């Protein structure tokens, strides 16, 4: 069954889930005994999943909505998971596609809203931002209902998705010019109960570095700080690559979070090993460029991020030259810390991020 629903700023196209060619999933029998999950005119019955496409004028978002069977006397939670906010970060996209196929609605308690690639035009253009307007979908929230394509997508989430969410998980990786350490961010400045819920969920993931974030205008951070919806931003993988180990890592994070939230525990192959030990970082320093030119990171930070070594205060992190090889400036660590990510590309403009590292007491 295929159906199409309209809103002022977008259309929703939905059809029933069918098994893929590998037979790893199957259609599910609809139940007419309980109320279904609704998004405007879209209705998803308990114990079913639907493949959904949100069509904007100039872009679309592929998604899967899964409505689990209700457990008597237990409240149902809604978990929103997004990937492809930065569409040149691939492992999360692949992991979310797999999760959508693997999760059995009949064993799920609650609702899952899985947005496989939030910035699909950018995915096809191999661009980090929305090609039409250069909008960064990890900032600029709440967007505008009558704005550019990127602004409308941000506003769609603020208006239609965040109000339904009990938790938001946003999957990211290092872009083609970023190397990073596997880490996550939680909303440090959100309301106390929101912060605590997010922090406890962070402990359930398989991410070793837990960073306090003070951002407020990104996808998950806007929802946490202004709409009191707890959430996390996970970083796994780097350099625009899509390695199997990173995809599997995100699958495990999703399964561990679902188990932590009491929503799903039918993926023992992903949850039978306890999560890793955590390192908490309360402060992160973002080193920005004072120059426009050619950036050369030192082997010091290249090796430290590969080996997980601590950078010591005063260590040189890199230098910048101009196109004639003339020296413009050195950059040093202002404190002992762990490198979380750095720019590996040659081109740098004044104000661009060079290195982010966690400050250690």
State the CATH architecture of the largest domain.
3-Layer(aba) Sandwich
Q: Hey, roughly how much beta strand do the residues contain?
A: 25-35%
- CATH topology title of the largest domain: Aminopeptidase
Query: What is the share of helical residues?
Result: 10-25%
Beta strands, count: 22
Low-confidence stretches: 1-6, 20-36
Structural class assignment: alpha+beta
Write the H/E string, N to C. EEEEEEEHEHHEEEHEHEHHEEEHEEEEEE
Main beta sheet: 11 strands, mixed
**Averaged pLDDT:** 88
Radius of gyration: 21 Å
Kindly, what is the distance between the CA atoms of the first and last residues, rounded to a whole number of angstroms?
58 Å
Number of helices: 8
- Can you list the strand order of the major beta sheet? 1-2-5-6-8-7-9-13-11-12-14
What's the CATH class of the largest domain, please? Alpha Beta
Looking at this structure, what is the CATH superfamily of the largest domain?
Answer: Zn peptidases
